[in-house]
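Re: that chain you flagged

S.,

Sorry for the slow reply, it's been a week of failed gels. I finally had a moment to sit down with the sequence you sent. For the record, here it is as I used it:
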Amino acid sequence: MRTCLCWLRQRLADARGSMTILTTGVLVVILMVIAVGTAITGVQLERNGLQHAADSAALSASQAIDPARLYAGGTGPVIHEGSARAAAEEHLRSYPHDTTSTQDIQLADVTVNADGTVRVVITARTHPPLAGWFLRGTGTAIPLTVEGEARAR
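Prediction finished late last night. Pasting the structure tokens below so you have them in one place:
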């Protein structure tokens, strides 16, 4: 019995192999942090691209002047929501979206303020890098909503 206890004490005091487990655990945590950072950065880049599309659609909509209102000399804004929405939709159709992870890009809302400022809201869904394969398999996506404003002078 005494030799068994001595052997067990020796075995517990021997730390060989524990560094391998510790190193493996730390590497797994580091790789997970890198993956999460990459996914967050990818979603932010997709949002920035969508923001550029919203800003340019708002600029296009703010330039959709109704000639009848412009030359009639009325007191309201020369842009109305119908022409602004049509211009924003046309611009969004022709806008070059250089992405494969953003889908369902839609013009959610177009409003024209009394001072002629056009506000455009665009919605979309995106799949982040490194996790997109999992999210596509589950049918889940990250929703994005951006707003753009412009006013023609």
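What I noticed first: The longest helix spans residues 18-62.

Talk soon,
D.
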